[in-house]
């Protein structure tokens, strides 16, 4: 498909990234003729690699320089999500990258909650990419925490009196 070809091209990116750095060898070595499933597999692997970098920083927040290694992978992944027309996933990923950059900023004070939120989002994105290998995937459903209350659809009929009473007695 056209979207998967765009992802493959993003992984074949060989140009210099902003800031004058060349992408790491791993990002440049990704084959441009990989099948769609392979391209998605590479996206999942890149997400796992970023999670590992974040974990290394979490274990030793005195070394923020380890976070700099995600730059090229982050650009390729964001482009890949956009090429797949997965705008919500791209936005979630961009938010993670922005927060990771904050972790590396001088004077940042390590906050477990921040780490957990970013790690949870990256993990969810990994599940989303894995689901995409099987076909279209529901980003919102995959990213929804287990046990989260799902808001009723606007066009859904109001709950019955019996349902309201049952809910009231459960409380």
Notes on the protein architecture:
By secondary structure, this protein is an all-alpha fold. Helices cover 61% and strands 0% of the residues. The protein has 8 helices and no strands. α3 (36-59) runs antiparallel to α6 (112-132), α4 runs antiparallel to α5 and α5 (87-104) runs antiparallel to α6 (112-132). It is flat, with a radius of gyration of 20 Å. The termini are far apart. The model is unreliable at 13-34 (pLDDT under 50).
What is this structure, in a nutshell?
The protein has 171 residues and is mainly alpha-helical. 61% of the residues lie in helices and 0% in strands.
Question: What are the segments in which pLDDT stays under 50 over at least 5 consecutive residues?
Answer: 13-34
Q: Any idea what the shape is?
A: flat
Order of helices and strands: HHHHHHHH
Record field, number of beta strands: 0
Task: Tag the structure with descriptive keywords.
171 residues
What is the strand and helix layout of this fold?
Elements: H1 2-11, H2 25-28, H3 36-59, H4 71-83, H5 87-104, H6 112-132, H7 139-143, H8 161-170
Helix pairs in contact: 1-3, 1-4, 3-4, 3-6, 4-5, 5-6
């Amino acid at each position: 498909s056209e979207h998967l070809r765009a992802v493959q091209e993003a992984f074949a990116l060989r140009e210099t990234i902003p800031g004058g750095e060349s992408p790491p060898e791993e990002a440049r070595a990704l084959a441009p003729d990989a099948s769609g499933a392979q391209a998605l597999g590479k996206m999942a692997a890149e997400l796992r690699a970023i999670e590992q970098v974040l974990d290394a920083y979490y274990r030793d927040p005195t070394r923020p320089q380890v976070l700099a290694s995600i730059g090229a992978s982050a650009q390729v992944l964001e482009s890949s999500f956009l090429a797949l027309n997965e705008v919500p996933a791209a936005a979630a990923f961009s938010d993670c990258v922005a927060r990771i950059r904050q972790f590396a900023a001088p004077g940042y004070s390590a906050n477990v909650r921040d780490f957990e939120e970013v790690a949870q989002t990256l993990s969810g994105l990994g599940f989303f990419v894995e689901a995409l290998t099987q076909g279209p995937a529901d980003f919102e459903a995959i990213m929804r925490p287990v046990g989260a209350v799902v808001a009723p659809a606007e066009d859904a009929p109001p709950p019955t009196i019996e349902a309201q009473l049952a809910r009231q007695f459960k409380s």
